[in-house]
Each structure stands twice: as structure tokens, then as C-alpha cells.
Amino acid sequence: MADQEARENPTPAAPPAAARPKRVSHRGRTAGAKVSSNQQEGKVEEFEPFMLLPRGPPPLKEFLDIWDVDVLKRPQEINKQGHHTHLYSSDFLIVRRTLEFQIKITFDRPYKPAEDKFAVEFVIGPSPQYSKGTYIPVFPSEERQSVWRGRIVETSDNVVTMGITTSPECIVGKYMIYIGVVTPYGIRRTRRDPSTDIYILFNPWSPADPVFLDDEEEREECVMNELGIIYHGAYDDVSERAWNYGQFEFGVLDACLFIMDKADMPLSNRGDVIKVTRVASAMLNSRDDDGVLVGNWSGDYTYGVPPTSWTGSVEILLDYAGSRGTPVCYAQCWVYAAVFNTFLRCLGIPGRVVTNFFSAHDNDGNLKMDIILDENGKLDRNRTKDSIWNYHCWNECFMARSDLPPGFGGWQVVDATPQETSDGMFRCGPASVAAVKHGQICYPFDAPFVFAEVNSDVIFYRRQKDGTLEVVKVNPTHVGRMVLTKAVLHDGRRDITDQYKFPEGSPEERRVLEKAEEFGCQREKASLPQSDVEVEIPTLDVRVGDNFDVTLQFKNHSDQRRTADVYVTGTVVYYTGVPSAEVVFKTPKVKLDPLQNKDEKVLVRGEDYMHKLVEQANIHFITTGKIKETGQIITAMKVITIHNPKLIVKVTGSPRVSEEMYVSVEFTNPFKFNLENVHLRMEGPGIMPFKRKQYSLIAPGTSITWTETFSPRRAGSTKLIASLDCAALRQVYGETELTIQQ
């Protein structure tokens, strides 16, 4: 059959080379090429004549000449200290928008303001134009100003110190500097000198900048802090791990600018924080644009690094930029969020990583997560397709929203994890958190999707024999149970659920849901009688390999006897809620006397689940049942996180800048089987670049110790973070805090 089909529908031959279409150009549509590279440089003439000069360049020796240009780029000098950029490991000057910085120009003679005319010219990209903001001359005279302001701060002998203040909407990126002196014949410029290039960033310290954040401690946390905490696990059993954002490490700023180049983002758009974050949301994943990270939720990470193995963003960003845009393998939601956070903070946009526990992935906007039961109340796995992520990490960034009505600026959701497309690309946001809270989901961007992630209802349906579905229970409180982010300037948690939603069942919440329905969101309106029997599953603290009992707590609120036919299913799940393997299935019959509370225990043995666990080590228990006397359905759900062993990280030596120190990572295999092909990673911002080590085998009961030397580069409080990863054991971390003295 296949051969016959091939004969009837032969594959068309490739057209000859002459007939193939040539690469499409923009000629005939635009006067010039699209300017979207911060790395390409246009040629700037050293001499630009005012008129036709038939006899060659004129004599210019009698006019003002520039001997030296000093952009005061050393960390201890006024520019980097005043602009909060002294922590960047860079050989260049880095400043922030709207705040004055200074440069020193040395002439061949004393500067005469009445006679000498010059300008400091800032150029970005290959085709500088004043109208596009890619060519900006700055004059020392108060009488003559352009979009940036210049002034003479000081003159001493032949040296002029000039102050320059950029505009609040100027392009964020790397600029070239030229000094142009006006002569009667034309403009004479300095030669190209890469050492004077400067980077200009967003400025959350300036009220004129749209990213202004009027809280010094929040700025310190959300812009300057290199260390983060990623929350995961379950809402009632929260786990956490440290992450090195490393936004100040050498090469990271260039990598962040390269991401915008790779996105083919016009330079003229790179001063708009809304456009920058929206482009970055698409570019942090590789789904449709060869972005930074390849997502992988399969459990097979043969051709890359498992998501659970990363300890920070630096290695990922440097690999991506160093390969000129080859996507890095692999990521899941917290890796996307952590690397995106590095991008935000590196460019000066206040950013933080947020974790939503029990996050709905709603792809049709109906605010319903459907769970299908058979007519006896047993879970129907084959027909239950919706998934609720145990947790989902996204980002918030802080900005004014001039495109929205007043009150919807501030924290905005941006999410790089590829879930659904937005305007044809896998991205999400920026969506106003305030708009989400108040149900104003008509405003851009992607507010309905974020609203559903924290507000969806879990609907239990009973499927009849004829295929019809009957709503038997609605749980309006399961999704969006808790939203966490790191506390300001310490390692505690901050519960920000109230920033996304009003208290469950409150009048404000009802009004918000009504408002969301006006904009197209649909909710389940079925009115169901309250069941007089309840079942709950309490939280457990379980170590990997342990036997444990899952307790079902039944409560009979009626004054009559009740009998429950119960189904208990325990399934190993990925953190996205997708099932992997069933480890428990029990069908107890529970008899309850009037007003009786009764516990029913279900044993789960380590040997039944150990070799079925996937990387997050979660077992999802769903209890459903039917009350014989009333026909009502009872349900309970609980995610039990199996806790892995920890790494022990120890530091020895004198904790001082440039002093040699030692760090050791220790681990003992507590299992009865070998751990094979074990990878360890370790890094610490400002003190040690990321390092890797591999062990081919760690036998049962044996220990390893990995020791490295390092010399801290700067003073302050920091951490060393380590991870261990292998196919049989994921999500193993360790850390230690230390304070480096000057």
C-alpha cells in the first residue's frame, strides 16, 4: 500500500538552482535595512566636511585637538558608585538612564568656551540616526542642548570634566563615544576607541524612568541581589533551593544584549521596558525563535543538562552567547524564571521569581479543570486530560504602564515557560497583577491566562453509561492556593497571594469573578447540595525510600449511619501534574456511625515507588468515593513530596578578598543500589565561578568528597551553592553562607 501511494503521489523533485527563489530582501520596501544589532558598528568618519573640498583635507593643526578621553570607568570612581553599577565585572563604563555621569576630555590646549565648539557623540548600531535615537550629540553649552543634556562640571588646565544626563526613554544598550570638534571646514572626530564604549541601563532609582521603584530595600532585593530562592514542592510542604542569578558576572550583560539582537529587535524599541520584557519573554524559550533554553519534561536528558542540575544562570547565558545563539538544553519552569530574572536585574528592571502552588494550565479560558469519574466515583484516568501543576514559577517585573489606565502599573507578570502562544509566539505578559486581582482581564498582555492560573475551579464530573457528564463536586479553592516569592533582604518567604486574589468566598472575590465573566471567562454555575460526609488527607513528611501510611480522615456530619465505597489512587506524577506510574490502588469500604470521625490507613512501601519516582519525587493521591445511602460523591487530593538527602557544603580558610580558600561537597549514598553517572555542580556569586565534576559510580553506603579552591573577588555576604544529579536521584542540593571581609 505504501509503495502504491508513493507511485501515485511521487515526491516532487527539487527545482534547479536557477529556479529557486533568492533570499528575500527589503529593497523596494524600505530605504534602509532594519537596524536590530547592538554588536554591528557603522563607520563614523573622522572628518565630516561642511562643503566640497577639492584639494583634499584642510590643515587642522591650529584648531582644538583631543589628546585623551577618560570615561571614569573604574569601580571606585564616581560614575559606577553613583549609578549602582560598581558590582558589574566589566572593563567598560556602565551607567543608568536619567542620572548624570561624567567624562574627562584632555585637549591639546586650554578650552575656550567662547571660541571652541565640540560635542560628545553617542552612537549605537550600524546605521546611526538622530530621529531613531541611535545618534545623539551632547553639547557642553546650556544654550544648545539635544535630547540628552550636557554641562561643563570643571575645567583644569587642558582637562574638561563634562557631565552628561541621558533621557528617560533612551535606548538601553552599548554605545560608542566620539568627540567631534567644529572647525570652519567641517567636524573633526576622535578615532574609534573601544575602551571608551559605555553601557546604558534602565534606572529604578530615578522617578523619571518607567521602571522607578520607590522603595530602597525592594531595589536592593530586586535589582542588586544576586542570590535567589526558588520555591517548589507542595503548598503545605514547601521546598526551596538557592539560585545564583549572577547578573554582575563577566559576560552576562553582553549575553543579555545579545538575546535582543538574536530576537531581531529594532534598536529603537529597546528603550521601552514593555517591549523589552515582551520580547525577552519569547526569547528565553526556544520554541519558535531559537531562544535561550530548550524545555524538556520527559525525564530523558541524554543530550543536555537536566533542569534539576543547574545552580545558576551564568553558565546558561554564557553558553548561549558563546555559541552565537544555540539553545541550551534543558529547562523547566523554574529555570526559565530564574534565567529571565537574571536578564531583568542585569538590565536594571526590578524583577523577582514567583511560585504559584496548584497552578492551572487553562488553554481555553473557561476557568475549569475537569476531573472525570465513572458512575461509581472511581477516577477515569483515560478521560481526565486537564492538568494542575503542583507549582509553576513565573516572573514579576516592576514598571509604569502608560498604555493602561491609572492604577495598573507596578508589578507585572511575565512568563517565559512555553505554555500557550500570545500574538503567535510562546510568551506571556507583561500582565498587570493589579488587573488580574480585580478581574480587569481585558488589558494587555495575556491577563486572562494568568487569571485562570490562580482562579480556576476543579470540577468533578460523573460519567454516565450513556456518556453524559454530571457535575458532582466543585472545588473553588484548590487552584492558586498560595503564591510565594523571596522576602526582602533575607531568606524568608513572602506570601503575596493577596496581591493576586481576594480571600476565597469574600464579597470582593465574587465581584471580581463577575467582572472576569463580563470579559469572557466562564465558570461552573451548578449549585450542589453539601455532602454530609467529608474526607481529608493530612500532610506527611516522607524521606525517600521510607515506608509510610497515607491516612484518610472521614467525618460523618449526619445523625445517620453512612457507608462509603472508596477508591484510593496513588500515582507518581511530574510536577506538571502529568501521571507517570501508579504505585497504590486500594478500594476500602468505610462504615461510619452517626457523627463519627474515622481514620483509614493505606500503606505505601518504599519498594513499590522507589524505582518509579521521577525527578520531583511527587506522589499524587486522589481519594474518591460514593456514599451508598445518598449517592453523593466525596473527594480529596494530596501531593506527597518525597524528600531527598542533602549535600553537605563546608568552607575553610580565611574569608578575605583574594585569599585562597577551600570548599568541600560531601555526599553519602543512602540507598541499596548504585548511583551511576553522577554530576555535581558548584558556584558562588563574587567568589567562585561555576565548576563541574562527574563520578561514574557511588556504591551503596559509600561517601564522596569533592574539594575545590577559590579566591573571593569582592567583599560581602554570599553563598556557595551545590547540586548533585543522576538518573536515579534528582533534586539534591546543598549550600553554605559566608561573609567575605575586605
From TrEMBL:
The active site is at 333, 392, 415. Keywords: Acyltransferase, Calcium, Metal-binding, Transferase. Signal peptide: none annotated. It comes from the Eukaryota. The keyword Calcium applies. GO terms for molecular function: metal ion binding; protein-glutamine gamma-glutamyltransferase activity. Binds 1 Ca(2+) ion per subunit. Transmembrane segments: none annotated. Its cofactor is Ca(2+). Belongs to the transglutaminase superfamily. Transglutaminase family. This is protein-glutamine gamma-glutamyltransferase. It comes from Sinocyclocheilus anshuiensis. The gene is f13a1b.
